[in-house]
Design a protein that fits this description.
Elements lengths: L1 E4 L5 H12 L6 H5 L2 E6 L6 E4 L5 E6 L7 H22 L19 H5 L21 H50 E2 L2 E2 L1
Parallel strand pairs: 1-2, 2-4
Antiparallel strand pairs: 3-4, 5-6
Helix pairs in contact: 1-3
Amino acid sequence: MRIINKTQYDNKSLKQLIYASSKIMWGAGRKVSKARVTVEYGRRDSIHGKAYLNSLYMRIFLPRKFSEDLLQRNVQMRAAAWVIAHELGHLIGKRHTRRRNDIMGAHYYNNVILNDERLRFAEGHTLTQKAINVVKPIDTISKEINGIELRLKHIQTRIKRLETAEKKWARRLKLYKTKETKYNLNTKGGEQI
């Protein structure tokens, strides 16, 4: 499964949640391994998804920040697991149903999410933030020095090539001037001597 992560959440924790959610949809195994999942932020910090029947592409929308309250965060993680399982169901060809307790039900919200035992795994799951790479100023200065030295070397090479070209054209000019003087000495008034 290829995950395209456009959020600040860590790829490893996203992948764990997606794989755990895929176990709910039996038979999702082979098809899900080829799927391309894009995870991005939802509008108004909502949790929802989008997938087409029998396709290999789905989008999951997560909030920018999950709740600090443990109970509320567990509900949000259950909802995220349900959305992922629901969209994976579309990838393997399942349509919406009218049954209330079915994961493929179009309106499978609130108390049903709280009471479904299949989503209990999501309660302890947390999406961790990506590690922020702090660049040391010394590293950036040394990179800048290396870049300047490289540019200077290119400029010196260019100058040397131009000097060589100048010498070449000066020699050629001198050659043609000597040819011109010989020609002028050999001819007087257009007549050859």
